[in-house]
Amino acid sequence: MTKIKLLALFVGFAISGSAVAATSGSSLEARMAQLEQRLQQAETRAETAEKQIQQLKHQDIKREQEIARVKEASPVEVKKDGISEDKLLTLNGFDNLKLYGDVEFNVDGASRSGQLTSVRTKDNKNWKPGNNERWDVNGRLLIGLDGYRRNDNGQFSGFSVQPTADLNGSMNLDDAAFFFGEEKNWMAKIGRFEAYDMFPLNQDTFVEYSGNTANDLYADGYGYVYMMKEGRGRSDSGGNIMLNKNIGNWYFELNTLLENGTSLFAEQNYHGNQLENDKNVAYLRPVIAWKGDAFSVAAAMETNVVNNAYGYTGENGEFVDQSKRNGYGMTMTWDGQKADPENGVVANLSTAYMDASDEKDFTVGANALWKRFELGYIYAHNKIEDFSIKGLRASDYDDDWFDEPGSYDIHTVHASYLIPNVMDMENFNVYLGAYVSMLEADKTYSGDDDSDERYGARVRFKYYF
Q1: Are 329 and 199 in contact (CB under 8 A)?
Q2: Which long-range contacts does 349-353 make (Cβ < 8 Å, 24+ apart)?
Q3: Which of 93, 336, 385, 460 could form a disulfide with 344 if both were Cys (CB 3.0 to 4.6 A apart)?
Q4: How far apart are CA 297 and CA 335, in angstroms?
Q5: What angle do CA 376, 135, 436 make, to 5 degrees?
Q6: Are 206 and 457 in contact (CB under 8 A)?
Q7: Closest C-alpha among 202, 179, 214, 199 to residue 300
Q8: pLDDT digits (tens, 9 = 90+) for 156-178
Q9: How does pLDDT run across 102-123, given as a tens digit for each residue?
Q10: β-pairing, 89-91 with 95-110?
């Protein structure tokens, strides 16, 4: 009986141990399965995170490459004088924005404000003809913003805007333009700007008739120094559309200026007649230029292609067209400073001819810059075929010359000197300028010979930022 009990007890322990072992094994297998599942989930999450990291790295590399490429691109119509090239504001890795400006303040002393020639500079538009000497402080502060965007294939687009604050308290605008094209190939531009300079004056600081706009170039009763600027642009009464093309060393340009044609004439007077504007003019100004390492040459013409755009009403009541204006010009430049910045010479030789209604004008000029000193001479010849004084007060033209037809010669000598890096600042310069002009009148109808002169001096403070 005792043996039976011991056997039953042994069997019970064996069965119980087997049951416990079975239960433990089942629990262990479940735990191992859970661990394996969690490990797979962790591996999946790690793979996903690795992919995301690689994508972020790729985006960062691409962004850095785009930023570097945009910074290396050569902006179009961006001022560089006195401005560090690394001062660029980059947005989104694609757009290149440049904020810059300059201060140009002048202290002037000059003879009678009645101009010997036909233009009022933009700083002096409010001066009226008179016999008084002029002592004046004038100038403006310009703030510019240029934008530029370029694709991988070299195609680009951009804009430029340059508001100015004048010392007379008025706000004006130099350039406001949008452009697009393909680098070193072609470009289209629209807005307010200046086209190719066909009569460069080198380091000019003070020549009364060197105005940069297409407005008020011709003042009735004064000599006219024609410089191929009538269709160049930057007009206060219209805008430009320009196309240009580069082929090797050759450059081609066609500028179209649409404006009120009477804005060319100060007070809308021409040969003693008050002009009436009937429709806007359209100046076409093609330019062809060849540019080498140091030598460049350009030829151009400008012409108004709209007939009967403006004129006056004659004695018989008929409209007399005065809008015929055909100009031709050529300029040559030698720039020795490219190879020798310290001792190189920059020299210009320019000539221009205007065939207009009842008037012919011829101008030739030469100037040279060596180191910091510039010297130039300009000769102009006017031939007036018709001039009417009917309806004009004699006092209006007491001091003027064109009160009857005749030929007139104008001689001008101008000079300037640069004082750079004032107070060791690379962006702060001072210019000293002076000019003397002499008008010789040979009035063929009256036989009188007479002359008149103008002169002036200027100190210009120029600061770039």
Answers
A1: yes
A2: 350/198, 350/199, 350/200, 350/227, 352/198, 352/199, 352/226, 352/227, 352/228, 352/327, 352/328, 353/226, 353/327, 353/328, 353/329
A3: 336
A4: 11
A5: 20
A6: yes
A7: 199
A8: 999 999 999 999 899 999 999 99
A9: 999 999 888 765 555 444 444 4
A10: antiparallel
